[in-house]
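[agent] plan:
  1. take the single chain provided in the ticket
  2. run structure prediction with default settings
  3. attach structure tokens to the ticket
  4. add a short note for the reviewer (M.T.)
[agent] executing step 1
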Amino acid sequence: MNKQTVAVVGLGKIGLTLAAVYATNNYNVIGCDVNKDVVQAVNAGKSHIDNEPGLPELVKKAHDTQTLRATTNTSEAVSKSSIVVVIVPVLIDSSNDVSYTYIDSATEAIGKGLQKGTTVIYETTLPTGDTRERFGRKLEELSQLKMGSDFYLAYSPERVYSNTIIRDLKLYPKIVGGVNEESLIYASAFYRAALQCEVLPVESTETAEFAKVAECVYRDVNIALANELAVYADACGVNLKEAANASNTQPFSHIHAAGIGVGGHCIPIYPYFFISRGLQNGIIQESRKTNDNMASYALSRIEKQQGSLKDSQVLILGLSYRENVKETEKSTTWLLIDQLEAKGAKVSVNDPHYDAQEFLSYGIKNNDLSPEAVKDVDVIILQANHQEYKKVNFNMFQKDALFFDGRNAFHRDGIISAGLRYDAIGGAKS
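[agent] step 2 finished; step 3 output follows
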């Protein structure tokens, strides 16, 4: 039996992982990307993503077996493929409006190479209706083929998590919706074979699109609830973490962890896909405001203890948006830096995942946590709880410096025993 050829359009962290997994599951894969350096790396058997466990090995294996190659010519790759998987980002701009620049360009290239009988599947998180009405219509226009009969169109959202993408591809059910029954059948059969995972068919592409955004909205809203409770717990003199742990012993209570902010390429972004399509008022919009305001709230807590931050030495632990990953998208650290500098503070940042040159490229002062670098620090803010921070000797810091635990990750007594003061989001005692 001849192997099917799959074109994967977009070789970012998820796209490259998908391409490599397909290639090791009996498919010939052509990875498509506009970045020549990415294409060159893949064709040399190397992953340009160095912080996703197992991915470099998988890319090398696929290269060595000659089942994965890459190109910048998306139209040509699509013309040679029976299946096309699209994983090109949709972003929001500075006004929180949806930006389709990259995926529109990719769709145009796909349409120019689209052949009769091909199945096209979008995996990028999208506003409801876009697969059919924005991209399906565009593909019809460019290819002069009819979706649902001449070519098949489906939507199946990526649902993976950084650092565990390979595992998650098998672990989580693959939601699949088609523009018609035939599209659903072809896309579902592909995923069962290519990912060897459970497939969850839904009624339409619109249902699948809605389901993915709803996942992110659910998390964002529940984090906002926890953050609102944290602010109120501080006012009441209550430790929220202790109270929430007690509440959650009831099986219908699922209070999330409060924190200094929500980052990444999913949770702070995708709620705007609903907000921009009619949900401007209500809990979703308010949740976004609540979570974005947590950095400001944290600094207000710090100022209550520290007084003016003008000329204070402030160290932020964690440039990444969350613990144990190397990703800065929508990291709360950016908000903290802007607000601290506006207050006249002198800011440095540590993150074990980034080297000095990377800090230089971001225009951020790197603090290497050496005794010399930390001796004059007045305030330490834990923003991303990297595992390396559990090994930090806090006795190096000047006595009476303030440790603000933005993730409620450290024990108060341990910090105080090092001679520092301690405060936290929802930590109450101050």
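[agent] step 4 note for reviewer: The mean pLDDT is 96.
[agent] ticket updated
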